[in-house]
Amino acid sequence: MINLCNPETYFVPYLFQKHGGDPGKFDADIDQLFNDFDSMPFQLYSRAMGKPVMTRADFEQLRCAQTWSDAFEIIFRFYSDDGTDAQGLWGDKTPPYVLEMDLLKKIFPTARFLHIIRDPRDVAVSAHRAWGHNVLRVAKKWARDMHAAHQSAPNLGTDYLSVYYESLLEDPETELRRISEFLEQPFDNIMMTLNVPSENLGSAKGKRQIDQCNFGKYRQALTPQRQKRIEEIVFDVIEDTPYEMEYANRHKPLSKPALVGLTVADGLKSMAHVVRRRGLVNGVRVTIGRRIQKKRNSH
Q1: CB–CB of 250/271 below 8 Å?
Q2: Cα 239 from Cα 146, distance rounded (Å)
Q3: Rounded CA gap, 148 and 176, in Å?
Q4: Which superfamily does 112-254 belong to?
Q5: Angstrom distances, CA of residue 97 to CA of 8, 126, 195
Q6: Cα dist. 155→23, 102, 151, 158, 163 in Å?
C-alpha cells in the first residue's frame, strides 16, 4: 500500500528551510510552524476539496517527532486518503520537487525518487490547453527540470528511477512491474486500472483507464516553426532520452527578457485560473503563497 498525500504539497522545502536546521533533529517552534503551514495554498486547497485539515491541536502530534522526516510523515499521513490510520509507504507527487531532490534526500534519508519523464513537446501542448501557459516557457521549465534531475541522479544512486511516460502507456505492465520492484512492493493487476480519475484537467480528465494513445499529439497541435523553437530550447538536455528532434539541430535558449515577459504573462494566467475556480480572495491568497514558497525554495 502506497499512500499519496493529496493534494500536492509544495511546502516541504519552504517549511524546512525556514524553520529547520539539522534534518536529524526536529526542534521547531510548533506555534510558528503551524502558522506558516496553515497559510500555505495546500491548506486552502484541502479545505476547498472538503478534506479534514490539521488544526493547531492536531499539530501537537509533532511534539513526538525526533526528526524532520518524522514530523513531515505525521502531516503526510494525516492528508493521505486513509488519514492518520494509513499504513505502509507514503509519498508525494509534487512535480517541482525534482528541483529539490538533494535537499529532500537529506530530510528523508530513506526516500526513493520516481521521475516520470514526458516528451517536452506534448508537455508544452498539455500545459497550454490546461492553463493557457506559453509553450516556450513550458519547454524552458522542462529543460530546467531535466538539468536538475541529471545533477541529482548520481547523488541518489539506486534511490532514483526514471520512467518515460510513453513507455508507461505503451507497455504499462512491464513499467509498473519495474516501478514495483524499485519500491519493493508487490505488483498487482489492479494497478492497471484507476479507482478514481487521476486528472481533472487536459485530455486525461475523468479517465479511469490508461490512454495508450495519449502521446505525439504535438504534431497536430504545433506549427513546424513552434515545434522547432521548443526543440531548440530543450536541445542540450534531451540527448539521453528517446525523444528525437524533428526540426532543431542546435541549442537556442530563450533570451532573459523573453523569459521574464513570458513568466509574468503565465503568472497572470495562473492567477486568473485559480480565481475562476476558488474566487478572488482565495485566488490571490494562493498566488501569493506560491510566490513565497518559490522565493524561499530558490535560496
Answers
A1: no
A2: 11
A3: 24
A4: P-loop containing nucleotide triphosphate hydrolases (3.40.50.300)
A5: 10, 20, 25
A6: 18, 8, 8, 9, 18
Q: Phi and psi for 48 in degrees, rounded to 5? A: -65, -30
Residue partners of 27: CB distance under 8 A and separation at least 6 = 21
What is the grid cell recorded at 58? Answer: 492536531
Whole-Å CA distances, 211 to 105, 174, 192: 33, 16, 11
- Phi-psi group of 74: left, alpha or beta (phi > 0 → left; psi -120 to 50 → alpha; rest → beta): alpha
Per-residue pLDDT of the chain (299 residues; tens, 9 = 90+): 677 777 789 999 999 999 998 999 999 999 999 999 998 889 888 887 788 999 999 999 999 999 999 999 999 989 887 655 556 788 899 999 999 999 999 999 999 999 999 999 999 999 999 889 999 999 999 999 999 999 999 999 999 999 999 999 999 999 999 999 999 999 998 888 877 665 656 566 656 667 777 899 999 999 999 999 999 999 999 988 999 999 999 999 999 999 999 988 988 887 777 777 767 766 666 666 666 656 555 54
Of the CA atoms within 13 Å of residue 45, those in its CB half-sphere come to 17
Q: Which residues contact 208 (CB under 8 A, 6 or more apart)?
A: 193, 194, 195, 196, 197
